[in-house]
Sequence to fold (138 residues):
Amino acid sequence: MPLMITEDCIACGACEPVCPNKGIRKSGVVYVIDRDSCTECVGFFSKQQCVVVCPMDCCGPIPGVVLTEEALFERARAIHANSHLQPTLTEQTSHFRATANRNSQTTASRRKWWQWLFWREEGSEPCSSVPANVAESG
Fold:
């Protein structure tokens, strides 16, 4: 399924440089994904990179549009036909093949980047107060 960016986009721009197909651009005050350029990062990454970096979780599938791994890979090959950057299909470059591996990951390894800022250690609750040593010195 090609991806889209919802109206929740805050125009931070984090998604634009991570697209291997250069298929994300600013349109007005938000970013948009070119439907014909989106390969869901198949051939390059095991996860859709815009989804990984978006702080607002506003990158998601276009409802009703479903493409197979083969169709997405062929699209990536066509986009990069004259490029030094060539897609390959492995567990590391396709979320279709990495699904079984992803299911075995721990909750901690699936946190978004910003969640790590508010987490103390494995199994603990999110930080909700200033650490004691900082509170005492301030």
